[in-house]
Amino acid sequence: MTLLTQPLRIAFAPLLAALVLAGCATAPAIDPAALPSAPAAFKGGDGRWTQARPAEAHADGAWWKTFSDPVLDGLVERALARNNNIQIAAARLAQSRALLQAADAQRAPQIGIGADATRQGGAITPAGGGAGNLFRAGANFSWELDLFGRLAQASNAASLDAGSREALLRNARLVVQADAARSYLALRALDAERALVRETVGAYRDTLALTERRFEAGDIAELDVARVRTELAATESDALALDRRRAEVEHALAVLVGDVASGFGLDAGDWNTALPMIPAGVPSTVLTRRPDVDAARQSMLAAQARVGVAQAAWFPDIALTGSGGFASTDLGELFKWSARAWGVGALLSLPIFDGGRRDAGVRSANAELDAALAGYREQVLVAFKEVEDQLSALRLLAEQGEAQARAVTAASRATVLSDARYRNGLVSQLELLDARRSELRNRREALQVRSARYQATVGLVRALGGGWESAYGPALVGRNAGGRSAGG
């Protein structure tokens, strides 16, 4: 093996030293103990569903179709196509992919062509010192040798940023899907409640007509008429308040589907949407399904890669350069073969003193990594919290719904008995009004509990990342409060 001469060893000493230290430019490892771990099972889950595997409810991920409501299907599709938040997320993804392309381009050779003309004089001119012209045309080449991984780390960070943006786009779609479903289901719940209150208004009007006839006949006092009129007016006020709430929900739905609220409308309809039972699966699958968790994870890894980029700034930059073309003092002779010119070179740049700029860059990158790691941990904790919230809500709402159904049955029976006894003069008007007030309150609470079950079901889908699979099929569809099954 030929030994390097002394001058060459001196010339290459900085490069050899940098190669020895190159291993220090790698990104720091993340302590597994600092990462959150998934629990063995959900506290609020059902043991029958603990063997679920991560998958989507449908081949196309259209989980909302398990509600078996064509109107809901159409609204969600419109929202996916026209929602502005989705378009903003898509634009940011395109921007991050462009930045990735730019980072990758830094690792490739740079080739360009150019031409210039100069007139110069003085000491820099050939013998004679007179002014002269110089014309040049040709191509140039440069390529930075990424011996220490700085460019690779930067490209990796940009790739992870693009992956994070892609996950955020998926999350934006999931959020819009869930918000559209929740708004639509809230609208249908308000339609049912409005119908109930207006039915009660009709009953109060019948009672008022009967009371006025009995007052005209002298059977009762005017106080009884005033009481019925009070209940009628209060119930009519409740109906108008529900109209106002429905209008607000309808306007919010218009924004979700990308329409102007003034031109958007959804007719009142029956609440026949099926209520699916969503299997939660094993907790660890939440970390693979939820796009916001995936986005936080990739942001953390990108921050880790940027620590490597900051560390690599301490090592030399090595670039190969080359040029080829023509140069002449006479423009007419520029492209003759005798005017050809070329050059090759190598450039080594090694930092010695920068006033602490590179050290500050490393500390800044490490701080960014700490923040990203904490953000990832927080996102995981929030994910499990949201799943547990919806699981416990569904379990307790199911029990509450059964209890409320018994209350509605009893209140309805009390109203029937009170009405019959009032018409026969056996009880006072106060007893009848109290019975009707109790029945209306319990029926409205039953509708609100049913609505909360639908909202919690959509919330669980969103908390699980929009997909599931169980041993019983994509989803278990139960009967809703109205008695309609998915196929009914």
UniProtKB/TrEMBL annotation:
The keyword Transcription regulation does not apply. It holds the Pfam family OEP. It is a lipid-anchor. InterPro entries: MdtP/NodT-like, OMP_efflux. Residues 430-457 form a coiled coil. Keywords: Coiled coil, Lipoprotein, Membrane, Palmitate, Signal, Transmembrane, Transmembrane beta strand. It is found in: Cell membrane. Residues 1-29 form the signal peptide. Belongs to the outer membrane factor (OMF) (TC 1.B.17) family. This is Efflux transporter outer membrane subunit. The lineage of its organism: Bacteria, Pseudomonadati, Pseudomonadota, Betaproteobacteria, Rhodocyclales.
